[in-house]
Every structure is written in C-alpha cells, then in structure tokens.
# Entry
Amino acid sequence: MAVERVGFIGLGIMGAPMAANLLKAGFQVTVWNRSPSRTKPLVDSGAKGADSPAAVAAASEVTLSCVTNSADVEEVACGPQGVIHGAHRGSTYIDCSTIAPETARNVARELSARGVDMLDAPVSGGDVGAKAGTLAIMVGGEAPVFERCLPVLQAMGKTIVHVGPNGAGQVVKLCNQVACGLNLLAAAEAINLSRRAGVDPAKMLEVVGAGAAASWMLSNLAPRAVNGDYAPGFMVDLMQKDLRLVLDAANDSHTPLPGTALVSQLFQSIQAEGRGTDGTQSLVDAIAKLAR
Amino acid sequence: MAVERVGFIGLGIMGAPMAANLLKAGFQVTVWNRSPSRTKPLVDSGAKGADSPAAVAAASEVTLSCVTNSADVEEVACGPQGVIHGAHRGSTYIDCSTIAPETARNVARELSARGVDMLDAPVSGGDVGAKAGTLAIMVGGEAPVFERCLPVLQAMGKTIVHVGPNGAGQVVKLCNQVACGLNLLAAAEAINLSRRAGVDPAKMLEVVGAGAAASWMLSNLAPRAVNGDYAPGFMVDLMQKDLRLVLDAANDSHTPLPGTALVSQLFQSIQAEGRGTDGTQSLVDAIAKLAR
Amino acid sequence: MAVERVGFIGLGIMGAPMAANLLKAGFQVTVWNRSPSRTKPLVDSGAKGADSPAAVAAASEVTLSCVTNSADVEEVACGPQGVIHGAHRGSTYIDCSTIAPETARNVARELSARGVDMLDAPVSGGDVGAKAGTLAIMVGGEAPVFERCLPVLQAMGKTIVHVGPNGAGQVVKLCNQVACGLNLLAAAEAINLSRRAGVDPAKMLEVVGAGAAASWMLSNLAPRAVNGDYAPGFMVDLMQKDLRLVLDAANDSHTPLPGTALVSQLFQSIQAEGRGTDGTQSLVDAIAKLAR
Amino acid sequence: MAVERVGFIGLGIMGAPMAANLLKAGFQVTVWNRSPSRTKPLVDSGAKGADSPAAVAAASEVTLSCVTNSADVEEVACGPQGVIHGAHRGSTYIDCSTIAPETARNVARELSARGVDMLDAPVSGGDVGAKAGTLAIMVGGEAPVFERCLPVLQAMGKTIVHVGPNGAGQVVKLCNQVACGLNLLAAAEAINLSRRAGVDPAKMLEVVGAGAAASWMLSNLAPRAVNGDYAPGFMVDLMQKDLRLVLDAANDSHTPLPGTALVSQLFQSIQAEGRGTDGTQSLVDAIAKLAR
# Structure
C-alpha cells in the first residue's frame, strides 16, 4: 500500500523546498517548524500545520526532518515532544539532516524499540537541487524500508542510493564533504598558481575543466571565486560543521585524513576574517592570503 | 596559406598516436625518434623518416615534439642536431611535452632570434585521448602563431585554448596537475573513510559522484582503485616528475601550495613501495597505509 | 595565615605522587578516589580518607583534583557529591587536570558564586616529574589566590607560573601539547630521513641535539624510538585526547594550526595499529610507515 | 705528524670567523675569497692570501671551504682553478658548506682519484657559534681522515661527530634543518594559539620552555618573534635553500616528510611578502597571517 500521508519537520533553506516538492507530488503533507512563521507558505499551498514533531508523526505514515545538527535531530526525534511520542508502530522516520553517523544509529535504535523504522537520508545538491527536486540522496537503513519509502524520496531527489544499514547514509554524506573540500582546495591552488604565474585563471579553468582535472567545483564554484563572487551556495560555517563531523568520525575509527584536516584548517582562516557566511569558494582566498 | 608539411619528434606513448592523427588528417608528416625502431609503424603509414630533429625541421613548416622532460626539449630544440639548426625562418616549433615554464620561455627566445616561432602546447587526456584525437591542449605563444597552427592542433585535440604568451601553456598544464593530484586525494580520503566506517566504497562513489563532489578522477580512476586495479593510465613516477615542476615553479614565484605539497609526499609513499609505475589511483593506498 | 589542610581528588599515575609530595611537605592531606583501593597507600602514609569530593572539600582549605577529562572535572567539582557542596566560603579549588579552557572557566564561575576561588593549574613533566616534585605548573586564576596557594603548588612543582585569569592555565597547557607534538614530528622526520639515507640515527641525534635543533623530545624520547623502545612516558591515546582539546579550542577561536592538525592525523595512524597505549615516541613509526 | 698548514676558501659570515679561529689556534693559514677585499682582515691577522683555490690547496695540508651552494662547491673543488688542480697527494679537502649529499659524494670521488681525501663537514650554530668556536660539526668521510683532521675541526667547533662515510655529514645537516624547521613551527603554532586565546605568549613560553616542550628554538628564537624582532640569525631564504635540498634528497630516497613539506610552504609565505632576508623566527607570522 503506497504511502499517502507524509510529515516534514524543519522548513529551512533546504527543508521548505523539499516539503513543497512532496506537496507537488501529491502527498498529504503535515509540517512543523521551530519558528512557526515559516510554515505559512506551505500551509497556503495545501499542507497542514501541526504543533509539535510528535503531532506531525501522529498524522503521518512517513515523517521526514531536515534540521541543523545532531542535537536538533535528537530533540526532534526523541525529545519530550519528539517524533517518538507520536509515531505509530510500522511508520517510518527519515532524517535528511547531516549529523554524526553514531547519532543516526542511536536514534534508529530508540525508534526501533517502539516499532518505528528509520532511514538516515542526508542530501547533496544545495538549495538549487532542493528546489529542482534533483538532490542526491544517500540512504542508510533496512532495504524493505528503503523500498517502501522510495516514492517519497523520488519526489525530492534524482540520484537516490541505498548505501547500507543505519548510519551508512551519514557516512556517505561525510565522504561527500571530504571530496567537496579537497576538490575545492584543488581549484584554490590551481587558481593561485595560475595568477601568480601571470596567467588568466579564467582561461586556465576553461581548459583544465575539460580533461582529467575536471570537477563540479572547478566548473561551478571556481569561476565565481575568480570573479570575486563569494555569495553562498553553501556557507563556510556549515562546511566547517560538517568537516568537524568528518574529523570526529575519522578520529573514532582511527582513519587518518591529512588532506581533509588541512582543508578544515584553511576554512578556519576564512572564518577568522569574519567571513563564515561566505560561500565555500572563498577557500581560494585562504591560499591567496598565504601568497601575500 | 595553410600548413601542409609537419614534423613530429618523439614517438612515445603520446607522440606516436598524435603523429598518426596528423597523418590521418592529411598532413605530410616527417618523423624522428631517439630509438629509430619506433618510427617504422608511422613510416609504414605514409610518414617520412628523418635522421635528426634538425632534418625534421628542415622538411616542415610546423615541427612538433613530445618528449620526456626539460632537458630533452633543450636537446631536441637547441642541441647540436636540434630543430634550431634546420628550421626555416617563419616556420614554427610546437612543443607538447610537460616541462618547466621557464625552459619553454628560454627555448622560445632562442628560436625567436633565428626567426622561428614557438608555441608551448602541453596536452592532457592520456594515451586514450591521444589515440582518439580528443586531447585538451593548453597553448602559450603569440596569437597569430596560434591561429596559423590551429588546424594542426585540431588534428590531435578537442579542447584547444590559447592561454597566454610563451610559457603560459606550461603554467596551465602545471595547474592541471595540481588539480588532478588534489582531486585524487579527495577520492582517496573519501574511499578510506567509507571503508573504515564499514560502507561499500563502490556505493559511496556511485552517489557522491552524482553531485557537488563529482570529478573526473572520482568517476574514472577511483573505481579502479576500489577494485584493486592499479594499471596505469598515468604513472606515479611521471606524476611526481610533474609535481616537482609544479613545486619548483611555485617556489620560484613564492606561491604556497600546502595541499599539493602533501599530495607529492603521499605519492612518494607509493614510490617507496617500488610502485612508481602503478597508476596514480594508487594514491588511495597511501592513505590506506596510514590506517593500517 | 598559611594553608595547612589540603585535599586531593584523583589518585592516578599523576595524582598519587602529587598527593604524596603534599604529605611530605607537611600538609594535612585528605584524599578521595573513584576506586577506593587507590587511597590506601596514602592513608598508610598519614592522609585521611573521605567518602566524597564534597567531604574532601569540607575538610580542606585548598582542594586539588587531577582527573581524566572535562566531564570528570565537572562531576568532581559541581556534580551531586562535588566539591561545591562541601567547600567553605573563602576556600580554594585547584584543578590540575588537562581540560577545555572553557570548562575551567565555567567551573570557576559556578564556584565563585558560592564564594569559592578556583585555579586551573595543569601540569607538565609526567609521572617522573610528579614523583620528583619537579612539575611545570601553568596557573590560571586571580593573582591573590595564586599567591596564597603558591606554597601548596611548590610542594609539587618546580617551574610555577601564573599565566593569566581562569582558563589561561589550560590554554598554556594546550600550547604545551602543540609544541610537544610538533617537536616529536621534528624528531620523527629527522630520524626517518637519516635512516633512509643510510646514516645511523643515533649518531645523527647526538650531533643534531647539540645545536639549534635541540629539544627535550630529541634528547629524551627520540633515542627510545631509535632503539625500538615504545614504553610510555605519555601514551598516544592521552596525547590525542589533548590534541582534540587543542583543535577544538583553536576551532572555536578560528586559529588555523595546520602543523598540529597533521600531527593529530599521524597519531591516529598509530592508534589504527592498536598501539594507542604506546608512548608518543611511536610517532616515528607513523612516518616510517609512509616509507614502506 | 700534526697538521700545520691549512687553507680556507670562502670568507663570508661563517667562513671569516672560522678562518680566524684557525689562525688563533696557531695554524699557518692561506686564504682565498671570490671578492678579494674580504681577505684583508685575515691577512692583517697573519694569514697569507692566495690567488685561486688551487693555490690555496698547493700551500696547505688541509684545505677547507665554506661557500653558498652545491654549484659553488663544484667550482671551488673541481673547477678550472679548483682545489683539485693544486692539492698534493695525501692532503685533505674539508667542505663546511651545506650542499646536496650527492654532490659531496661526487666531489669526494673525483678528489680520491687524484689521491686527495675529502671530508664533508657542514656546521650548525650560526655566526655566533662560528665566532665563539662552538659550532656543531657533522662529519662524513673515512675514519682515519677524520682522526687526522680532528685538531683542525676542534679549532672551530665544540660538538664534532663522525657520522659516517662521505655524504653522511650532509645528510645529518639536512636532518638538522628538518628538526629546526618543525621546532620553529611548534613555536609558531603555540604562540598563535596563546595569543588568539588571550594569553600573553611571553608567559606561555616561560613555562612551556621549562618542560617536555622545551627546545632551542622555543627558548632562543620564539621570544624574538613575540617581541616583533625579525632580525636574522639565519635568513628565511637560506633556510628555504636548505629545505629544498632536504626535500630533493627525501624525494630521491622516497622518504615522505609531510611536516617538512608544510614548513617549506609556510616559509614561502614569508618570502612572498618580500621578507626572505628576515630571520627564520618570522615563521610565526605565516601562521598569524592565516588567522587574520
């Protein structure tokens, strides 16, 4: 029997368009947000408002959340007014936040004890992908739960991969941030070498982006940095939050990541300038600073 | 008046298919190689053999070379039997090797004093791109010379960009190697984090490669490393040669590249195992080694 | 009026000899330890046992603690049976553990509200220095409190410096660990370069340690590593705990420390081998591993 | 039979006081310098001037040199007017410059073919140590040659160690520079962490320098940086020259040195500011720059 009623908790830059896409796909959507004003546009579009995460869960077969950090997920899922107090046995909770894999596993365990399934399903693709419904979604949890919820995920994303048991989705998201950070450093060092050697970095990016050095970062974010455009796609402060999750998880499993550790130190250099809300392409400036 | 007669010096893994594509494109091709046996297949296909770089240049309007390092280019261009001793005034020498930008500028200056133009035109795309005629070619030199030689370059490559004066082509090639190296490190650290956290790296690559973390390296070389396939596209020893050019050039212009310096140290770890002829995807093992 | 009655909480490898030195210096000493068996040797030497941190504080003008981490200090100082519930107004609490500067400041604030002064007084010098009473002690807190407690600290240490307000002692201890870590890396890279170039590292250390490259680590720990002696002075796992405090504190103040970040990743390489209880001189092996 | 007649080639900041100490010790000294004006003070003190390195060698049982780089040593030792053309069979050439181990071995081989012994004997201790005659001298060569020349070396240095065959002296000097560089980075990161956390770095250095984090750099150069004194003991440009020798030698033996590679990149950041003639303590500013 197909899922019809879904809930959405956390209507921020990512969550709001994701919930909107669920509405567009025909689901009955119930929403909640910490600051209630953000629910209005969705209610105007046909969603129902609820007054707690528990109430969202009580009204839904599948309840999703997209919030800021591990502590928020713990609160939303298992806090005094959390999903766990409203969810029916046999319903599913899907968290799309980026959090510690261990937190995802702990929440899954607690919900499982009440007969509620969980998927960790962090996303990649930014607000652009959230609006367009083209997110990449990396999903951890049991295969039958994944299969059952696939139509819900397909309303929000394009590349949707079941990568393993609970926590695995978060692990893959952390791997994603490792690659994003180092691909940005690649662009940053190439741009600076080009500039210092007197070669127009825009021309460099044009040809380098066509071969074995190509990357999404080189094609999409690097040209912005070259043009002095530091408006965020994804903010440095959020990237640092994620890299801290990466380095903590790597520390727990004793996995040395010397490159990622360097990237994180360099992003701190941007934060030290008070530019934590700039986009991640500002990493180019951390390298530039060293050559001044 | 269109170029008809071209020469090619250095018929190695890259040079031989590049020369073959010039033949296919209808140019009259004269060739020379240090070990003469390598000229035979081209001569069998219609090229003429010559007995020195000078003789190649004497027979050609445009003479190309693709050899191993800066010293080889100096020898081939300006040595006792070099291009400079055969080239006609108004002819052009195009070097496709990866060498120090300074060497390229020096050779251009010497040739210029004899009325011979030069382009530095290093390529990216590997033997696969050389055979397919789809190389990216980054060209330094004067604009009219570039325009005049464009049909020759188009016989060998697809993305062909004039990036600045002599030496600029080499600078851009070094930027290319910076980005290749750090994109590989991105893949290496992501793969290791995934594995150590118990998540199948192949699944990780599948979803991570679909979003903002995408790169040519992640899609093309990382899966080989995951499968234990270390056969070279591009060998570690050659990458290290190029990274040394990068770090020397960066040193000369006082451009700190902390990420590239780290990558170079990690490739040394592969060389220390006696695996310098493995493909660059073996960087994954340098990170893996740290977690063993 | 001179301090006569002191308490000591936490009788581990460091705390037990520190408390013993207080006894030897003539103070009346009351002690408590989580596992009570460890109090016996001190009680046999003349200390009184108490059954909680609060009870220790109630019996003391100055109460010291030396425990494992920030959470332990919070428990011992402000937990249900903590110092705060027994300490008299006007008495002093001195914590000698290595913890987050922020935790030290928070505990000081809570105690201050009850009229109890606090010093953060982490130590350096290992169990050897603790036994010999030659510890370096870096003290944060108000100057008059420092002056009043100086005789107590002098019973345990030799170099005792008041470095600033509450938290400053911990900051300086973190700086100490930064320098220890990078000085170890200095020794590790020098030893490996020497060995790989065929030169006896013991001879190298002999002469290098006599000049501008001299360090305590080079003279004291490096020769042990050269001889394959990895018995701990200070264990890798504890060093990593401290480096995590360093990197978290640096992160909070946006202070990039690329060298320390690298050191921490390399220590993880030792932990990955299951050697977290080896001494920190095993960092030499993390570099050696890269060259194998 | 004791050595009586010694020669000295290269009377720079190091060489001039070293030659002066040989005079003071009672040796008959013959000198040569590229710019002849520098010989005068020594001739005034009793040395004889000669008009080429060959002439110095012809007049000496032991000929020393202290020049800038590998190319200078090759010229002075084996060039058209080099030591090799004047030295008697059975005499000894001692080079005190810091050069590539391979160059030292090559020069030794060439001299050996003419019956001339060689020692590579680079020094550490700066102009202060050169004047005071307290240099550390790390000596490569055959043991009997070392024994025979020991009285000559003792006139210039205090810690004099025979570390292995030809080239080994240079290897040990490179190890010395590795340790100097990373010990400086230790001081730089500790100072910056202290400052950013609001703790007076002078007080930090006072206590940290008393324990396990102690180093010559922390005690001698770090306080200068804290006081904004960047006058050279040893200049950044010279340190970078040496670190390039280190990284080249490490590259040749495939010895990954990630910490030293980072130090070298950070020194480039000082050179990029046009401060290559500042003292090496300016590394503190490279870290400071990242936090601005």
